[in-house]
Specification:
The protein is α+β, with helices and mostly antiparallel strands. About 30% of the residues lie in helices and about 35% in strands. It has one domain. The chain starts with a helix and ends in a 5-residue tail after the last strand.
């Protein structure tokens, strides 16, 4: 009889079952927490890379226009815009810079003085009646006010243009801001 009683106790007790379940739950929660943290880091790194790519693209577009310029003039240096007029070797003029929280390039136009002085119109994407087109996507915003703002300055003694770009992604939950500086020489022809 004792022998039959001992041989029938092959299962787990309730306490053993609870301890096993608790250990399994703790291990599972640690693994899931690690995976979720890894995915969040992956998203953050991807957003930073996309922001860097966007900033590099915009900077290269601006530098390409300035590098082949014969003359560069500041036409707007206000709280909401930092714009320059770039004249190419062929005599084509373009507006470049930061306006309406975007990096913009203006269309080719003849003489800047021929246009009405209406100023910056963000709702119609114009500056003094000249169309200005964004060269960045709509998710990224160029900071245009405060001490840490996107701006362009021209040094005519050294024939250089200094570009300070501050960009952030509006859609990002991480709120990362990127600052990119560049100084470009141009051939000043008089």
């Amino acid at each position: 009889m004792i022998r039959r009683k001992l041989s029938s106790q092959t299962g787990l007790t309730f306490v053993e079952l609870l301890v096993t379940f608790m250990i399994f739950t703790m291990l599972t929660s640690l693994i899931i927490g690690y995976l979720i943290n890894s995915m969040n880091n992956f998203k953050r790194v991807n957003e930073e890379i996309a922001l860097h790519d966007e900033a590099n693209y915009v900077m290269s577009q601006i530098v390409n226009y300035i590098f082949v310029a014969t003359d560069v003039k500041i036409i707007s240096d206000t709280e909401s815009s930092s714009l320059i007029e770039v004249t190419s070797f062929e005599g084509h003029k373009k507006i470049l810079g930061f306006a309406c929280k975007k990096a913009v390039v203006g269309t080719d136009y003849g003489n800047f003085e021929d246009y009405p002085k209406t100023g910056l119109d963000c709702s119609h994407n114009t500056f003094n009646g000249i169309d200005i087109l964004p060269i960045n996507n709509e998710f990224n915003e160029f900071i245009s006010s405060g001490t840490n703002a996107s701006k362009i300055t021209v040094d005519h003694t050294n024939d250089t243009v200094k570009i300070e770009m501050v960009i952030k992604n509006d859609q990002s939950k991480f709120g990362k801001t990127l600052v990119l500086d560049s100084e470009v020489s141009f051939v000043h022809v008089e």
